[in-house]
Amino acid sequence: MATLVAGANAALTGENPGLDHVVVGMGWDAIPSRGPQAELVPFAVMCDSSGQALSNDHLVYFNQLVSADASVTFIDDDDQEQIDVELSQVPANISKIIFLAYVDPEFRGQGTFASVRSAHIRVATADNRELVRFDLSVTNVDSVTAMIFGELYRHRDDWKFRALGQGYTTGLAGVAKDYGISL
User: Which Pfam families does the entry mention (predicted)?
Assistant: First the structure.
């Protein structure tokens, strides 16, 4: 298992021949509050070679548990949130899959990532053998309301993972604008 820093890449299929199924787990702890609370919502966006979502059918989250092609599925297990990716079933026109979480503004006011601790993303095999992990830095995030944790992306014929930790002060709306999602 490799622990990554922001911006680092890890070869998944290149270093694990025959790997065609991964589970991407996202987790965090939130400091309880009587006021605004950070209720994080995980989200996956399937993007084309230009970095844009193919359509809103290529999103996976609590209201849409499976992508249009059924290659990406939202599941609930050991981590707070998990997304199952059948790499061999991801259509060829998908170049990357972005994994993010945003603060739900409807849950107890507009919270931020300031109350989030121990945020991480991990990529594991179907039998839960951890391949890579990225522990996000959650400092200086007082106004951050969405965070891209990482991405799976194609590199030639292989799949790789990139640790990102990119925060947005504009929440899901900012992510939607950058990736061409209709809200």
Answer: TerD (PF02342)
